[in-house]
Write a structure and sequence with these properties.
Layout (H helix, E strand, L loop, with lengths): L9 E4 L5 H12 L3 E6 L2 H14 L5 E5 L5 H15 L4 E4 L14 H32 L8 E8 L10 H21 L4 E8 L5 H10 L6 H11 L10 H12 L10 E4 L8
Parallel strand pairs: 1-2, 1-4, 2-3, 4-5, 5-6, 6-7
Helix pairs in contact: 1-8, 3-4, 4-5
Length: 274
């Protein structure tokens, strides 16, 4: 990756205690940024904070328990970031998981839960951090590469729905439209909004599926490669959190200063559209 110095900049990562969010926080810290992460599980968040501090002893790091679906939690998180760092330059919205269901077996409550999670995990943090992002963009006025940014983790399901994930696919498509609308609305204020569309990326959720199936001595690598072949992933494997994080880092920083309203496909080539 091209080296970039983020000293003096503040990055906020929701869902930063594991997986893609944790890997993204690592990249920001490595580049010298001050980083704030949040997560719902206080114990997992504490472990993540400890790991980051061990790797980056001089890190300017804030870890706050926060449920991004709770407006009070999100507001308190934004206040904590403002108190600690006084600014936010980059916001990474990374929260949510897939729901396996068909139209026939998705209840009204399940639809509501899925739509609320996918939409409000973006809406609430964006709303809470927008004043600081606007201030950061205004402070960089005149610097073509100094715009603030919002990056969202979305799924390839937004463009390529799966019948066994009907609720998630529908919600992801709506999120793609939301991100495009935000990009257009915030561009005049020099705030860029982009997303990544992930395919299958290694995660705790996939690890739990692996353990639940008890594949009789088959290793994690063998199990995931077999599943990748079954799902016709051209690269023949699951993605790594670090690979998705690198795309997020690119879109969040000045490396992509002339990109907004766009997305990067991080699916291992599984997309069928041109």
């Amino acid at each position: 990756m091209i080296q970039i110095d983020l000293t003096g900049q503040v990055a906020v990562v929701t869902g930063g205690s594991s997986g893609i969010g944790f890997a993204t926080a690592e990249l920001f810290l490595q580049a010298g940024a001050s980083v704030a992460i949040c997560g719902r599980d206080a114990e997992r968040l504490s472990r993540a904070e400890q790991r980051l501090r061990e790797r980056f002893p001089q890190a300017q790091l804030l870890a706050t328990r926060c449920n991004v679906l709770d407006a009070t939690d999100v507001s308190a998180f934004a206040d904590a970031v403002h108190t600690r760092f006084g600014a936010t330059h980059m916001l990474v919205n990374n929260a949510g998981q897939g729901r396996v269901s068909t139209f026939a077996d998705t209840t009204d409550d399940a639809w509501r839960e899925e739509l609320e999670l996918k939409y409000f995990s973006i809406i609430r943090p964006t709303r809470a951090f927008l004043p600081m992002l606007r201030a950061a963009a205004a402070a960089a006025s005149g610097n073509a590469c100094g715009n603030a940014s919002i990056v969202c983790v979305n799924s390839l399901l937004a463009l390529q729905p799966e019948p066994h994930m009907v609720a998630t696919s529908s919600a992801r498509a709506g999120v793609l439209s939301l991100i495009k609308s935000l990009a257009g609305e915030l561009a005049p204020e020099h705030i860029r909004v982009n997303s990544i569309l992930i395919g299958i990326v290694e995660s705790g959720q996939w690890r739990r599926r692996y353990e639940a199936q008890e594949p009789r001595g088959r290793s994690w690598d063998d199990w995931t490669r077999a599943l990748a072949r079954k799902k016709n992933i051209p690269l023949g494997r699951f993605g790594l959190p670090e690979e998705a994080a690198q795309a997020l880092f690119y879109l969040a920083t000045a490396l992509s200063s002339y990109t907004t309203g766009s997305h990067i496909d991080v699916s291992g080539g599984v997309a069928r559209h041109v």
